[in-house]
Each structure stands twice: as C-alpha cells, then as structure tokens.
Design goal:
Layout (H helix, E strand, L loop, with lengths): L1 H17 L11 H14 L5 E2 L10 E5 L6 E7 L4 E8 L7 E6 L5 E7 L4 E7 L4 E8 L10 E10 L4 E7 L8 E7 L2 H8 L7 E6 L15 E5 L5 E3 L2 H12 L6 E9 L12 E5 L2 H4 L11 E5 L2 E5 L2
Parallel strand pairs: 1-3
Antiparallel strand pairs: 2-9, 3-8, 4-7, 4-9, 5-6, 5-8, 10-11, 10-12, 11-15, 13-14, 13-15, 16-18, 17-18
C-alpha cells in the first residue's frame, strides 16, 4: 500500500505545477536591460538566426520559428531623431511568452520588452544615431518550441519632429537684442544650438518649421527692424518682426535667420549716411535752434530729415 501511495504522489506533483497560473507581464526596468545585454553577449551570435528579410517601417514581415530556428534577428535602418513602435504577434500559446530586444549599431540594448503570459509584445524605441540596428525576437520559453510557430513583426514609425529654435541675445556693446531663428530636427538639436549663445539669452523652442503661419496681436506699435543685411523695414509691432525673422529662416532643417530692432517707431526714410549730405541737425525742430554756414561749393538744405550742407 505504501508503494502505491508513493507512485501516485510522484505522478500528481507535475500536474500541480502545470496548473499554476503564469505571471503577469511586467514593464522592463534598467535591471532587465542589463540582463538582456548579458544574455545576448553570453549566448553569442550563432544562437540567434539572422533573417535575410527586408524589415523597415513600410515592410512588415511574416515568419516562423521552428525547432532548429527558435530565435530570430532582423536588421533595421534606424535614423537619428526618429522613433518606432515594434510589435511582435505570434500564434503560440500565451504561456510561452514573447520578447523583443533592440540594439544600436554599437551592440548596446536600447529598448526591451517582455510579456511572460502573452504571445504578443511591443516596444517603443527612439533612435539616437543613424545606422543598422538589430531587432531580436523570440518566445521567452524558446526551448519549449516543438513545432512550427508563425508570427508577424511590424514597425510603426514617426519621422523627425521639426522644431524652430529661437534665441534673443543681448550681445556686449549692442543697445538692442538680436533675434535668431533656426530649423532643427529635435529638442536635442535645439539644445545644441543654444549652447552657442550666452546663458543669459532668452530661448524658446517652437513646434513646427520656422516659416509656418504665426499669429500676432493687431496692436499697432511700430518698430524699425533689420533682417540679415536687408534695409530697415517698419513692422507693426515686435511680434510681427520676430515672425518675419522666422519666416526668413524658411522651413528646412539646418537653415536659419537673424535680425534686430533698430529703433522703436517707424523707420526713417532719411539717409544720414549719404556722404554728399552734411547734417548739422537731424530734425526740423533742431534746425530752428542752430545756425550754420556752408562752404562756397555747397548749398544749404532744410527738410523733414533735418538741415545741413549738400555737395550737390
């Protein structure tokens, strides 16, 4: 009797284990990434079968795991500044689990996700550098693969996020601030652009290209602004001036512009830099308070810009 009881106990033990519920999927942690890197390094490249199948954002793949090919690796053309959501969906029992690793061109794991009680799993990854990235996919319990198991692998990608990096800089020796606008492809590029200016400058990163349509207040408070090396132009207000600088920067990443407000109010049409005009006063009001005499070859002039002597 004792012998039969011992035999029945041994047969019941594995059945009890088999009925235990699978653990719930958990989010990957930094420790998971470290263990994934260790596993990939320890397993070696021969245990992961590289698949000669094109896989990118527009080309999902359908493939199969077999007893002789239980873990697969795909090349993926990651581009700096872009991101992707990678999804693996298998037709095996959820108890086998599913997982994805993503490594950068240097072989470092940059994203990982595991689902211990599901045959589907996804992971989001941001590409910091351009080049060939590797996507590792397999069931977690790949050693239990006894037959052919089909799966689909797909990528949902987002392109570079275009931004407009702006800076208002008060350079030493200048009485007014210079306004800069630069098209960039990411927040990281914007931060790198700002490093070229004094820390006391005003920085603002705007979503979208610099030359998009910008709304400004309708208040007429004119300023005289200069964009690049163009002649001074009257703008309805400071907002309209800064919008004009951004518009001049265009909408292509890497292109930019700059400008400064020369003075408050409308631009003067007076050319005080004309070498043929020798001003003694630069307004009609000042001309009423001064007396002057011109050289014999010169003629006096009086206008809305002031008064003085002309060589003409």
């Amino acid at each position: 009797m004792k012998t039969w009881f011992l035999i029945l106990s041994m047969l019941a033990a594995p059945l009890a284990v088999g009925c235990a519920s699978d653990p719930e999927p958990q989010a990957s942690t930094e420790a998971d990434v470290a263990s994934d890197e260790a596993e990939l390094a320890a397993v070696g490249p021969t245990a992961w079968a590289h698949q000669p199948i094109d896989f990118d954002c527009g080309t999902p793949v359908s493939n199969k795991f077999t007893k002789s090919s239980r873990r697969h690796v795909y090349s993926f053309p990651g581009e700096a500044g872009t991101s992707a959501k990678l999804s693996l969906a298998g037709n095996w029992a959820p108890s086998l689990g599913a997982r994805i690793y993503v490594t950068n061109p240097a072989g470092q794991v940059i994203a990982t996700s595991k689902a211990s009680a599901s045959s589907t799993v996804s992971v989001e990854v941001s590409f910091k550098v351009s080049g060939k990235h590797l996507i590792y996919v397999s069931p977690i319990k790949f050693n239990q693969i006894k037959s052919t198991l089909g799966y689909k692998l797909a990528a949902s990608c987002q392109g570079k996020q275009q931004l407009c990096a702006t800076a208002s800089v008060q350079w030493e020796g200048s009485s007014t601030a210079t306004y800069y606008a630069q098209n960039v492809g990411s927040q990281a590029e914007a931060e790198a652009y700002y490093e070229g200016f004094p820390a006391s400058s005003g920085f603002q990163t705007l979503t979208g290209p610099c030359d998009q349509s910008w709304a400004c207040i309708t208040l007429y408070k004119p300023v005289c602004g200069v964009i690049r090396d163009e002649p001074p132009t009257t703008f309805s207000n400071a907002c309209a001036f800064s919008a004009a600088v951004r518009a001049d920067a265009g909408g292509t990443v890497g292109e930019g512009s700059k400008g400064y407000i020369q003075s408050e109010g409308e631009c003067s049409t007076c050319n005080y830099d004309d070498p043929a005009l020798h001003f003694v006063a630069q307004s009609p009001e000042q001309c009423q308070l001064v007396k002057f005499a011109c050289q014999p070859a010169q003629t006096p002039f009086f206008n809305e810009c002031g008064c003085g002597c002309s060589d003409n």
